[in-house]
Structures are given as structure tokens and as C-alpha cells.
Amino acid sequence: MTPTLSAALLGQETLAKRVLMVLGGSLLIALAARVSVPMIPVPMTLQTLAILVVGLSYGARMGAATLLAYLAEGAMGLPVFAGGHAGIAYMFGPTGGFLLGFVLMAWLAGLASDRGLTRGFVGACLTALAVSALLYLPGLAWPAAVMGKTVPELLSGWMLPFLVGDAVKAVLAALIVTGGWAALRARKG
Predict the structure, then answer these.
(1) Measured between alpha carbons, how far is 146 from 109 in angstroms, rounded to an integer?
(2) DSSP symbols for 9-56
(3) Distance of alpha carbon 50 from its chain centroid, rounded?
(4) At 140, which helix (H) or strand (E)?
(5) CA 169 to CA 14: how far, in whole Å?
(6) Structure pTM?
(7) Helix or strand (DSSP H, E) at 134
(8) 59-80 confidence digits (pLDDT tens)
(9) How far apart are CA 53 and CA 74, in angstroms?
(10) What domains are there in the chain, each with its CATH number?
């Protein structure tokens, strides 16, 4: 049994397949970062939804490689970040901890996938929720260290407004990936 959805769909990963997966995954994340969904109190992008889908589908190594490529694209000046932002200066700005945490997010989601924990909805959903919550560690540590933000400031402005959206995106990612597994089983059955 293949542990990841991408391996089940694509078979043996050749170098060419890996390169295409990384480029396709980073493009998906860049496009998702540009989508703004109106929510109260703040709008959300679909960036972390795409990161979760990539990690859960690709596995740890390919998920992390995809996010490293995504960050490299942004560092080179391609407008891949939320709002069309790009560049090293943006990466070291207030949201730098989240950007760096994206690599860990994809790797951890992929690690659970590599271990076969995300084939069912419950496992995929719990993984996506836990990984989404863990993203707040580097995401909040960065502005605390770089900008001197206090815990109340971090909670009220950097975390609490996004929790509902992050939970929704985690559930959607689990539905997408487990739906992919179900479609694959139906096609083979």
C-alpha cells in the first residue's frame, strides 16, 4: 500500500515527476494565497488550505520541498505571497514566522500521511487541525521577538481572528484529501 495520495496516483516518483509536483504545488499555494474570502472579523486567504493539501497529499519530503521552493520563489521577487507580496524584506516582516512555519506545516502534515494516518477523514482532520494550531508557534514567536509584541497583542491581533478560518480550512483539506482517496478507490474498484 502506498502511503501518500500522490504516490497512489502517480506511481513511482521520477525526478521529472518530483519537479513537476514541486512546481505545481508551489503554483497552487501561490494562487491560493491570492484568494481572499470575506470573513468576520478579518478576511482569510486559502494559502494554508493549499499547504495542508500539499502536505497531506505529497508526504513529508515532497511537501517540505514544495514549500521551500515556494519561499525561494517569493525571495526571488515572484508575487507568490498573500496580497501579491514578494521579496526578502517581506519575508522578514511581521508575518515571517508564519512563512517559515509553512515548511514545518507541510512537513508535519506529510509525516502523518507517510505513516498512513490521513487516509480516513478523522485522521486527516485531526492532523490538519493539529498542524494548523502548531503553525501559531513560529507565527507568533516571530513578531514577539522581532517587533516586541506582547501576548495580549498577539492573541487579539494575530491569532484569535484567524482560528475559525483555520479550522474551516483544516476540515476542507481533510475532505479534499480523503475525497481523493475515495475517488481513487472507486476508480480501481
Answers:
(1) 27
(2) HH-S--HHHHHHHHHHHHHHHHHHHT-EE--SSS-EESHHHHHHHHHH
(3) 5
(4) helix 136-147
(5) 31
(6) 0.95
(7) helix 121-134
(8) 999 999 999 999 999 999 999 9
(9) 20
(10) 5-188 (1.10.1760.20)
